[in-house]
């Protein structure tokens, strides 16, 4: 995710992201493209209310096998788990790059799997899975 969007998320949700750091030197804190920003922001709004009154915090946000993954530490209630599951489900139908409707796709070289719209998939050499 681009740095400006990352900084906006962290600044808007200080309790939730108080310990979020890149996993690797020079890497992003949010390991996905900009198309999932809205999903992450809406989830963060909900989680921030919980984080303000508990020890809940996000330790990792990334794409894995074409889906958003959010890893938490602290007081993870059933309600919090439901919010995360909903966001992860939305990501499976949302282009990671541009946020349009999308499907799971595999790269033509047999490598990576991502959720992409037809336009982004064509630009990146991905085909329908």
Descriptive notes:
- The structure is a single chain.
- The protein has 129 residues and is an alpha+beta fold.
- The chain has helices at residues 3-12, 37-51, 78-91, 118-124, and strands at residues 30-31, 57-64, 67-73, 103-107, 113-116, 126-128.
- The strands form 2 sheets. Strands 1-2-3 form a 3-stranded mixed β-sheet. A 3-stranded antiparallel β-sheet has the order 5-4-6, with helices on one face.
- β4 and β5 form a beta hairpin.
- α2 runs antiparallel to α3.
- The longest helix is centred in the middle third of the chain and has 15 residues, at 37-51.
- The two termini are 24 Å apart.
- The model has no long low-confidence stretch (mean pLDDT 95).
Question: In summary, what is this structure?
Answer:
The chain has four helices and six strands. It is an alpha+beta fold and 129 residues long.
Question: How are helices and strands ordered from N to C?
Answer: HEHEEHEEHE
Could you tell me the radius of gyration in angstroms?
15 Å
Biggest sheet character: 3 strands, mixed
Q: Could you say which overall geometry the principal axes of the C-alpha atoms support?
A: globular
């Amino acid at each position: 995710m681009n740095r400006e969007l990352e900084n906006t998320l962290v600044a808007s949700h200080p309790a939730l992201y108080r310990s979020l750091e890149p996993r690797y030197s020079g890497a992003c804190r949010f390991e996905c493209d900009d198309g999932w920003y809205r999903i992450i922001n809406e989830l963060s709004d909900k989680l921030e209310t919980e984080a303000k009154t508990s020890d809940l915090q996000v330790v990792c946000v990334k794409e894995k096998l074409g889906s958003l993954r959010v890893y938490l530490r602290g007081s993870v209630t059933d309600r919090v788990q439901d919010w995360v599951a909903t966001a992860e489900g939305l990501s499976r139908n949302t282009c990671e790059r541009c946020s349009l409707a999308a499907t799971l796709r595999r790269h033509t070289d047999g490598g990576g799997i991502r959720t992409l719209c037809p336009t982004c998939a064509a630009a990146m050499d991905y085909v329908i899975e």
